[in-house]
Amino acid sequence: MLKKRIIPCLDIRDGRTVKGVRFVDIRDAGDPLELAVRHASGGADELVLLNISPAGENRKTFAKCVERVAENINIPFTAGGGIDSIGDAELLLKAGADRISVNSSAVRNPGLINELADRFGSRCIVVAIDTNRIGDDWIVFTGGGRVSSGLKTVEWAVEAARRGAGEILLTSMMNDGTRSGYSIDITADVSRNVDIPVIASGGAGKKEHFKSVFLNTDCSAALAASIFHYGEIKIRKLKEYLYREHIPVRL
Description:
8-stranded parallel beta barrel
């Protein structure tokens, strides 16, 4: 059985790691390099680094951050935020990222997924989806969660996979930063309808939330941020707990 992965996420703005609640109320969480090294040595399977500066500002500064992280850790990591072209993706891959993540740009131009997959291979392409419940539907949002695309989340995930995405990073906006647990329903729906790995994101607050998302959905990985950054949950301890609960993880 494939091992379930634990993935810390570093949202980076102006050279610092930050974290918010439901995509707002942003506060400082520390130095990206220090956190990356700590998480890598603490048992993380992978990392995600996202540039959340407005409209992808400071691309070269972010690429330098990616380069420093690549030089100092020995686990795979994904980098994204503000990628609008082959050139943007190439900049981060050359800096040392193992994969790149696209979000709003792929919604605006779905063909970008095909172009990136053709150029770099599907295994390098993660499509991030920010989703929120509107009435009875889960809808894709762009622009850092500010703009409703009108797209239904499961349909967009299926299209992204068809166009060549190698993985889906699915973030529940309504649960993000709340520490109330992952959105099991939409995570289960997406992971059931695509044949590529799905990373669950948004809402982790305690060890039991990881257990729940792994037992009740087919997601391949669970992502969290502040609980790891502030040391409230130690990754190695979390994985030991999951192992005892008969969830396959890499110890």
